[in-house]
Write a structure and sequence with these properties.
Number of domains: 2
Oligomer: single chain
CATH topology of the largest domain: Dihydrodipicolinate Reductase, domain 2
Bound molecules: (2R,3S,4s,5R,6S)-2,3,4,5,6-pentahydroxycyclohexanone
Distance between the termini: 29 Å
Strand order of the largest sheet: 12-11-7-10-9-8-15
Helix content: 25-40%
Number of helices: 10
CATH class of the largest domain: Alpha Beta
Length: about 325
């Protein structure tokens, strides 16, 4: 079966997904594109050839009977109606992170999914498909080195645009570590603190960064996350998991090393598409395969909700000047067990 995908959101991330589906992955075709900017949707529809349709709203695309499954790559703040629309139409949906920007909206999505009685939503937490993170997780799950005690993360970007706000340090950037740490440890995060540090002179006037988030999980694992988005040199994601008898960390950039008269060096990745190209491909291919087999894959609405609940607590801590804030989670519905 060839899965017929409709894309909602034709910006950079949406177009990157189109490119991988058309040129690198198998088992799917793009049959429709939607965007509030109809011209952008038309341009995507034209670029994939065939009879792909262009729509000005997600609702019209979801209602198209030719669309089997929906890929959402709009801003997080506008995800909710389209995710719920896809659920109510009985269509699988892969939605870019965050699932939604408030815990209430995530709950509304879970309620719609539970009502429909079928797991249809996958949240685009692509790091779960990254080879190196998976190798570390296998060590953690294997138990050979004892339990995890702490984790050190660094999330560095070369620069961000003027439109990037202090809130986005948490709900757009750190949300990756929030999900990855829940997945890696198999535990919920129960409390969080947002520390501010000396402001980088490279940050624009309204952006208070870097910050360091400190999380604690149910069993007391301490996790820190440096979020530093104007570090100039590259897109650098670091993670070191400290167990009782060993520490495992991500390799550096996964690029080749060059040794010459200037010393040893490797190419720095410059953005998430560069660093996580393989993970994005694995994630979207696994979703296509699962849709073809009528099964769910990847992170669920519960994962999207739990990550957003941690974001809310971290934002509250940021507003309160760095006090520790407990994460408020509803009881996990059996549906997501
Ligand atoms: C962006 O949305 C991402 O997902 C990137 O991985 C992250 O590094 C960046 O800070 C975000 O804005």
């Amino acid at each position: 079966m060839t899965v017929k995908i409709g894309l909602i959101g034709c910006g950079g991330m949406g177009r990157a997904h189109i490119d991988r589906i058309v040129n690198e992955l198998s088992g799917a075709e793009i049959v429709a594109a939607a965007d509030v900017n109809l011209e952008a949707a038309q341009a995507v529809a034209d670029s994939v050839g065939g009879d792909a349709k262009a729509y000005g709203t997600g609702a019209e695309l979801i209602a198209d009977p030719n669309v089997d499954a929906v890929l959402i790559a709009t801003f997080g703040s506008v995800h909710t109606p389209d995710v719920i629309g896809a659920i109510e139409a009985g269509k699988y949906v892969l939605v870019e992170k965050p699932l939604a920007t408030t815990a209430e909206d995530c709950q509304a999505i879970m309620e719609a999914e539970v009502r429909g009685g079928k797991k249809l939503v996958t949240v685009g937490f692509m790091r779960r498909f990254d080879k190196a993170y998976n190798e570390i997780k296998a060590l953690v799950d294997g138990g050979e080195y004892g339990p995890v005690l702490m984790v050190h993360n660094r999330h560095r970007n070369p620069s961000v645009p003027e439109s990037y706000t202090s809130r986005m340090l948490i709900d757009d950037t750190a949300i990756h570590e929030i999900d990855t740490m829940r997945w890696m440890t198999g535990e919920e995060i129960v409390k969080v603190r947002t520390d501010s540090v000396r402001k980088s002179t490279r940050a624009h006037a309204k952006l208070e960064e870097p910050i360091v988030l400190v999380f604690y999980t149910e069993s007391g694992i301490r996790i820190d996350d440096e979020v530093n988005v104007n570090l100039e040199y590259g897109y650098s994601i670091e993670c070191e998991v400290v167990m009782e008898n060993a520490a495992a960390r991500l390799g550096d950039q996964e690029g080749i090393y060059v040794r010459d008269v200037h010393g040893d060096r490797n190419r720095m990745c410059q953005d998430h598409n560069d660093r996580f190209h393989g993970a994005f491909n694995a994630e979207v291919q696994s979703w296509i395969n699962a849709v073809a087999e009528d099964t769910h894959t990847g992170s669920s609405s519960w994962d999207g909700y739990a990550a957003t609940a941690v974001v809310d607590a971290a934002l509250a801590s940021q507003e309160q000047g760095g006090t520790e804030v407990e994460v408020e989670l509803i009881e996990k519905p059996d549906f997501y067990a």
